[in-house]
Amino acid sequence: MRIPKWLKIGGVALLLAGIGVGTFFWMKRPKMPPVTDAASGMKFMASDDFNKFTESQRLKYAMEVIERMRSLSYDEYLHLMLSPDDQRMRLATNMRKVPGYEKFGSALFAMFLDRFWEQNPGKRTGTLMIIAMAQQGQFGKHPERYGLPSADQIKTEMNKFVTRQPVKTQAQCAQFMVELKRQREFMGLKEPF
C-alpha cells in the first residue's frame, strides 16, 4: 500500500515541529551552576533557583558541594558550617524538600566527625569549646535560626538519625557526645537540652 504524499509531508512537518519545541524547552531549562567552591555551592543551594531542578539533580548537586568541602582546611570548614546567617536556614529548608535528603545529612555528619577526629587534641578541645559555648547562646536557644532542628526535635530525631548511620559514624558520634559533655562540665556550663 502506498502512503499519500500529503501524509508523508505532514508527518515530516509534525516531526520537525516536535524537534523544534523540544529544542526550545531544552534551551530554556534552568542551568545549574558548576560547583566551583563549597561556599558558592551552598549559596546556590539556599536560593529559590535550586528548587527549580529535579530532586535527583538537587541531591547530586548537594553531594558535589560536600565533595568540595573536603578540600577546605578544618578551620575553613568550621567557619563555613558555623557562620550564623539566614543562608543556612534556607539551605536546610530547601534540602528537606528533596526526597533522600538524609543521604546529604548523613554525608555531612560523617564528614564532620571524620574531620573532627583527625585533628590534634588541642584543636578538638577548641572545637568542643566553640560548640559548648554556641549551645549556651543563640545557637542553642534558637537553633531554627541556623537551619537546625529545635531542641525538642533534636531529642526525638537525633537518636533515630544516628542509629541509621554506619557503625563507624555511630561510634564517633557517641565518643564526640561524651567529649562534649566533659567539656561542658569542665567549663561549668549546663546541659543545653
Structure description:
The protein has helices spanning about 5-30, 40-45, 55-70, 75-80, 85-95, 100-120, 120-135, 140, 150-165, 165-185. It is mostly helical and about 190 residues long. The protein folds into 2 domains: about 1-30; about 30-185. The radius of gyration is 24 Å and the shape is elongated. The model has no long low-confidence stretch (mean pLDDT about 80).
Task: Give the key terms.
about 190 residues, 2 domains, single chain, 10 helices, mainly alpha
Annotate the secondary structure layout.
Layout lengths: L4 H24 L9 H8 L9 H15 L4 H9 L3 H11 L4 H18 L2 H16 L1 H4 L9 H13 L3 H21 L6
Helix pairs in contact: 2-3, 2-5, 3-6, 6-10, 7-10
Instruction: Determine the number of helices (DSSP H or I, runs of at least 4 residues).
Output: 10
Order of helices and strands: HHHHHHHHHH
Instruction: Name the assembly state.
Output: single chain
Strand-residue fraction?
under 5%
Structural class: mainly alpha
Please summarize the sheet with the most strands. none
> Which ranges are low-confidence, i.e. pLDDT below 50, for 5 or more consecutive residues?
none
Terminal CA distance: 81 Å
- What's the pLDDT, averaged over the residues? 82
Task: Name the overall outline.
Answer: elongated
Taken together, the total number of domains comes to 2
Total strand segments = 0
Measured as a percent range, the helix fraction is: over 70%
Rg: 24 Å
